Amino acid sequence: MNEEEKVGLSEPMIRVTTPICMVCRRASLVELTRQEFKDVVENRVSIQEALPNRAADFRELVKSGTHHACWTSVTKGGRGL
Questions:
Q1: Are 60 and 51 in contact (CB under 8 A)?
Q2: CA-CA to 61 of 20 to 30 Å: which in 1, 51, 55, 74?
Q3: What are the 10-residue block averages of pLDDT along the chain, 81 residues in total?
Q4: In this structure, are residues 56 and 71 in contact, taking their beta carbons and an 8 Å threshold?
Q5: Domain count of the chain?
Q6: Is position 51 within any domain?
Q7: What's the rounded Cα separation, in Å, for the pair 24 and 70?
Q8: Whole-model pTM?
């Protein structure tokens, strides 16, 4: 099952700009369902509860702006912060 099937992208999506990545200093644009957006923005549930069918690296991107590749470069002997 691919990511689109997991989250049911048949419903309208909302594009959201993430916070700026602490490593590369770039923001990203992600798409959330209306319900995911509501749950994330209202902060009434944890990011894991708000986006349970999304990959951990996607949730981290939404929450902190940190890209998976950037985090990997820092934690696996990359250039560091």
A1: no
A2: 1
A3: 50 90 96 91 86 94 95 73 51
A4: no
A5: 1
A6: yes
A7: 7
A8: 0.76
Categorise residue 8: left if φ over 0, alpha if ψ from -120 to 50, beta otherwise: left
Cβ 61 vs Cβ 72: under 8 Å:
no
CA dihedral 43, 47, 52, 53 (to 10 degrees): 110
Residue 80 lies in a domain: no
Is 34 contained in some domain?
A: yes
Does residue 81 fall inside a structural domain? no
Question: SS3 letters for the chain?
Answer: CCHHHHHCCCCCEEEEECCCCCCCCCCCEEEEEHHHHHHHHHCCCCHHHHCCCCCHHHHHHHHHCCCHHHHHHHHCCCCCC
